[in-house]
Amino acid sequence: MTQQVPLLINGELVQSESTNIIPVTNPATQEVIAHVPCATPAEVDRAVAAAKAAFETWKETPVGDRARLMLRYQALLKDNQDEIATLLAQETGKTFADAKGDVWRGIEVVEHACNIASLSMGETVENVARNIDCYSITQPLGVCVGITPFNFPAMIPLWMFPMAIACGNTFVLKPSEQDPLTPMRLAELFKQAGAPDGLLQIVHGTKDVVNQLLTHKDTPAISFVGSVAVGEHIYRTGTEHLKRVQAFAGAKNHMVVMPDASKNQVVNNIAGASVGAAGQRCMAISVAVFVGEAREWIPEVRDALAKVRPGAWDDPDAGYGPLINPQAKQRVLNFIQEGKDAGADCILDGSDCVVEGFPDGNWVGPTMFRNVSRDMSIYQEEIFGPVLIALEVDTLAEAIELINENPYGNGTSIFTSSGAAARKYQHEIKVGQVGINVPVPVPLPMFSFTGWRKSFYGDQHAYGKQAVKFYTETKTVTSRWFEDDIDTGVNTTIQLK
Ligand code: NAD
Asked: What region holds the Aldehyde dehydrogenase domain (predicted)?
C-alpha cells in the first residue's frame, strides 16, 4: 500500500488506528498516491488535549518570540516554495505556476503574522475620570480549529494557523481529505522553524471528525472554508455550541464589462479569471455581464476561452489542470447538460475534453453559455468548473441590480475607463471584494478577505486586523492609583521618583 498519511499530535507524527481510510488520487491519472485515515474520536480528543496543554505555556510566550517563530517559518516556506508547489500540483492537478501562487499567497499571510506585536496593540485613554485611566489588552482564546477545502491546500491553512498561533493560541487543523499531503508538509516546516510541540495538530477525516471538533468543549473558535451547504451547518452548529465561528462559503462572481473598457484587457482577463484553476476558485469569474455595445465582444471572449488548453501539472503550456475528482467532473457535466436542456446557447462546449496521454483525467474543456435566463440552474448555482456565463444588459444600473439580487457576495469586478462608473459600482454593489479593472480582487493580508452575504457567515474575516480580532479576546482595564501611596509606601516612592 502507498503511504498512509500520519496525524500530527503534540509534535509527533502518529499512525492512526482508524479502519476508515480514504485514497488520495492524482486527478490527472486516478493513480492512488496516498491513503488518508479518518481519525478516531479518541485521536481527535488527544489532539485537542495536546493543544490545550500547549496553550498554557504558549500564551505566556513573549510576543517577540512568537513573531520570530513566524519569521523563521516565512523564510523556510520561501526556501521550499517550489518543492511544496510540486507536491501541491500532484495532489490537486493544478499547473505548477498556479500551485506556486497558492503557496505564495499563504506565505504573504505568514509575513503579515510576523508583525503581530503592532497588530495586537490595545488602546489607552488617560483620565477617563479624575486620576483614572482605561486601557485595553488583547489575549488569546485557547484551542482554535481550522477546517479547510480542497482547492487551496496551502493558502487556506496558512490563512488560519499562523495568525491564530501568532496571537498566542494553539491550533487543530482538519485539512481537506482530498489533498492532505500539502498541509502535512506545511506542518513539518513549521516544526522545523522551531514551533514547540502541541502548537499545531493535524487530524484527518470528514464530517464525523469535523462535528466532533465543532462541538468539543475545549475548542472556543472555529474557522471554516468550503461549500455553502457545509458552511451553513458549521455556522449553525458552532454558534449553537456558543463558539466563535467564521465560515467562508461558496460564490458566484460577476464581472461587469462596460463598452468604454479596453477590449483586449477584457478578453484576456475574462479568459484567465473564469477557467484558470479549472474554475475551482472561490473568486473565479463565473458570470460576465456585458453592458450595451460591449455585447459585441462576446464572440472574441469565446475565441479566447477556446484557446485555453487544459493539461497535466508539469505541462508548461497547460492553462489549467483537471477537476479534483470524477464526481466533481460529473457534477460540472450535469450542469452543462442542464443549461443546454433549459435552452441556453452553449457557444463553447468542453464536455468531451480529451488530453493526450491522460485518458483517465477529470478533464472539462473551457465552456461558455449565452442567452441564459436567471432562473436556470447554471446561473443560480455555483458550478465550480471552467464554465462562463455571458449575460447582456443595457445599462450599468441593470447590471448592479441583477448582481445585488444574486445571493452570493464574495467577489466582483468592473472593467471600464470611466471613474464615475467605477465609483458608482464600488459604492452600490453588495459584494465584499470589488475589482476595478482587476478581475480577481483577492486582498493582500494587510487587509482582510471580506466576502459578504451567502459567501460568508460570521463577522470577523480572515487575515489582516480582523483575524487578530477573531483570534483574541479584548480585556479592558480601568485603573486608579492613590497618590497617598506615593508618600506612605516606601517601595513605590523609590520607583516613582
Ligand atoms: P466542502 O464544503 O465539501 O469541504 C470543506 C471541508 O468541510 C473539508 O475539510 C471537508 O472534509 C469538510 N466537510 C465536507 N462535508 C462535511 C459535512 N457534511 N460536515 C462537516 N464537514 C464537512 O468544500 P470543498 O469542495 O472542499 O471546497 C470547495 C468549496 O469551497 C466551494 O464551494 C468554494 O467556493 C468554497 N471556497 C470558499 C472560499 C471563500 O473564501 N469563500 C475559499 C475557497 C473555497
From this structure: 14-477
d(CA 253, CA 375): 16
Of 225, 285, 327, 406, the residue with max ligand 1 atoms within 8 A of its CB, to mutate for a pocket test, comes to 225
Answer yes or no: are the C-beta atoms of 403 and 251 closer than 8 Å.
no
Asked if 162 and 239 sit in the same domain, the reply is yes
Residue 496 lies in a domain: no
Our count of domains for the chain comes to: 2
Q: Are 37 and 16 in contact, with CB atoms under 8 Å apart? A: yes
Whether 317 shows a pLDDT value over 70: the answer reads: yes
Dump pLDDT digits (tens) for 156-200. 999 999 999 999 999 999 999 999 999 999 999 999 999 999 999
Question: Which domain, by its residues, includes 322?
Answer: 253-407+411-436
- Separation CA 257–CA 285 (nearest Å): 12
On whether the CB atoms of residues 134 and 479 are closer than 8 A, the answer is: yes
209 and 306 housed in the same domain: no
Q: Is the Cβ–Cβ distance between 412 and 442 less than 8 Å?
A: no
C-alpha closest to that of 386 among 328, 453, 447: 328
Beta bridge partners of 477: 135
Decide if 367 contacts 350 (C-beta within 8 A). yes
Catalytic residues: 282
Task: Tell whether ligand 1 has an atom less than 6 A from the beta carbon of residue 392.
Answer: no
Query: Nearest 5°: phi and psi at 310?
Result: -75, 155
Same domain, 197 and 94: yes
pTM above 0.90, yes or no: yes
CB atoms within 10 A of CB 3: 11
